[in-house]
């Protein structure tokens, strides 16, 4: 394993990575793992990586564990494909990366695969997560494979699919009469009493390392010349911070020479990051009121490490945009017409692409990658069809 340490992203205090880390004890900032990149370049190169099997575990030297500690549910390299501009001119030079193909059907598998593997190596046996749904489902699945005890706390209106996935995978599930912030408070209050490791978004440095590998995958899939822009549906922000961390590591390794502009896409029913960007704030300073959206993963009123999300956006000269639920539902349907199954969170990126191209914030010649963070299969309940309008044929039908 490459030498590893951790640093606070707020006060820069340094920590040893030999124990399971949470947040900075000095200032509460999110910790980031740091690798000795000189050692990485002694051990691997782009050519060596290209010869390895296509799964994010191929970047093991840049992950916080040894290869024999990997807990895998067989994660594929998720495909990147161009969007057809026959459908809409705004789709020219646009691509999608389909993380709906990962175990449990969302990109949350990346973070949980790495975090569960690493925490198990560090001796953790009992984990608790507050979740909008998909993170709990992914933790439950990887936890089951690793033999961990998993406790999941979700808002009581969590999508049915996420509730069932978590329960069937063996997690102990609690529904909270509130939002994810309330669930998070409950985990924090009870974690010592019940001896849970709190695996909340950005309150530990491990999940980020799984999302970071998205940047590596994207870079390799774009032949080490990453796209100009990446549109990422953003709630708690581990996805977008992970991309930022991954692209920075690639730049420091000298394997790429640019970092894409990172565009956070939110729902107008819960858009604290968009507001912070518009008002030039360095962090979200109060919870979004009356948060409401069909994209459950974007209903994060008060992201813990908002300062880091905003840093990732500003450093890359990106932005944050909001789209409303009507646009999200329409985009899910548009994606179906392209043969793509997008969950509501992911569908938001298509509406955002159209808006950004329309406002010329994103030029027609610039490349844009939309991160399809999850599959529509868990969300058919959001799209109604009138059964009575679908013809029923008798078994003997010989014409329509
Ligand atoms: C499918 C999907 N996409 C995007 C997000 C937002 O990700 P993040 O919380 O890392 O910003 C979530 C969060 O739950 C999600 O489930
Ligand atoms: Zn600190």
Q: Specify the helix fraction band.
A: 25-40%
Low-confidence stretches: none
CATH architecture of the domain at 80-106 and 206-382: 3-Layer(aba) Sandwich
Structural class comes to alpha/beta
Reported by name, the CATH topology of the domain at 80-106 and 206-382 is: Rossmann fold
| Order of SSEs | EEEHHEEHEHEHEHEHEHEHHEHHE
| Top CATH class of the domain at 80-106 and 206-382 | Alpha Beta
Q: How would you describe the oligomerization state of the chains in this entry?
A: single chain
Mean pLDDT: 97
Question: Can you walk me through this structure?
Answer:
This protein is 35% helix and 16% strand. The chain has helices spanning 37-43, 46-51, 108-121, 134-146, 160-168, 180-194, 207-221, 238-253, 272-278, 306-315, 325-337, 344-358, and strands at residues 4-8, 14-16, 31-35, 80-82, 94-98, 126-130, 149-155, 172-176, 197-198, 229-233, 261-267, 319-323, 368-372. It is built from twelve helices and 13 strands. It has a six-stranded mixed sheet with strand order 4-5-13-10-11-12, sandwiched between helices. It has a four-stranded parallel sheet with strand order 8-7-6-9, with helices on both faces. The protein is an alpha/beta fold and 400 residues long. The chain has a domain at 80-106 and 206-382: Rossmann fold. Helix 3 runs parallel beside helix 4 (134-146) and helix 8 (238-253) packs across helix 10. The mean pLDDT is 97. Bound molecules: pyridoxal-5'-phosphate (PLP) and zinc ion.
């Amino acid at each position: 394993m490459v030498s590893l340490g951790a640093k606070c992203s707020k006060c820069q205090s340094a920590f040893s990575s030999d124990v399971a880390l949470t947040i900075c004890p000095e200032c509460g900032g999110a910790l980031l793992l740091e690798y000795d990149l000189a050692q990485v370049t002694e051990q691997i190169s782009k050519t060596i990586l290209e010869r390895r099997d296509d799964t994010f575990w191929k970047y093991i030297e840049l992950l916080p564990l040894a290869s024999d500690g990997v807990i895998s549910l067989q994660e594929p390299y998720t495909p990147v494909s161009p969007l057809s501009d026959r459908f809409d001119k705004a789709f020219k030079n646009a691509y999608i990366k389909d993380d709906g193909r990962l175990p449990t059907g969302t990109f949350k598998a990346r973070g949980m695969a790495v975090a569960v593997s690493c925490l198990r190596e560090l001796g953790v046996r009992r984990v608790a997560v507050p979740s909008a749904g998909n993170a709990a489902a992914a933790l439950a699945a990887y936890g089951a494979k690793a033999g961990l005890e998993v406790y999941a706390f979700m808002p009581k209106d969590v999508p049915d699919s996420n509730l069932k996935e978590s329960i069937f995978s063996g997690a102990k599930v609690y529904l909270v009469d509130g939002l994810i912030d309330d669930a998070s408070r409950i985990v924090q209050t009870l974690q010592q009493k019940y001896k849970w490791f709190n695996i909340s978004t950005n309150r530990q440095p491990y999940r980020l390392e799984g999302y970071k590998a998205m940047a590596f995958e994207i870079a390799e899939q774009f032949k080490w010349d990453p796209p100009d822009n990446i549109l990422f549906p953003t709630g708690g922000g581990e996805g977008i911070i992970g991309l930022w961390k991954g692209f920075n590591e690639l730049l420091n390794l000298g394997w790429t020479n640019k970092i894409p502009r990172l565009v956070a896409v939110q729902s107008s029913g819960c858009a604290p990051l968009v507001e912070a960007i518009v008002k030039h704030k360095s962090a979200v300073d109060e919870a979004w009121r009356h948060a409401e959206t069909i994209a459950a993963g974007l209903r994060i009123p008060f992201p813990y490490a908002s300062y880091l999300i905003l840093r990732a956006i500003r450093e890359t000269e990106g932005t944050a945009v909001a789209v409303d639920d009507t646009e999200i539902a329409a985009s899910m349907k548009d994606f179906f017409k392209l043969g793509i199954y997008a969950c509501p969170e992911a569908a938001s990126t298509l509406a955002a692409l159209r808006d950004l191209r329309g406002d010329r914030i994103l030029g027609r010649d610039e490349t844009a990658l939309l991160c399809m963070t999850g599959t529509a299969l868990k969300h058919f309940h959001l799209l109604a069809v009138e059964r009575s309008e679908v013809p029923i044929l008798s078994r003997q039908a010989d014409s329509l």
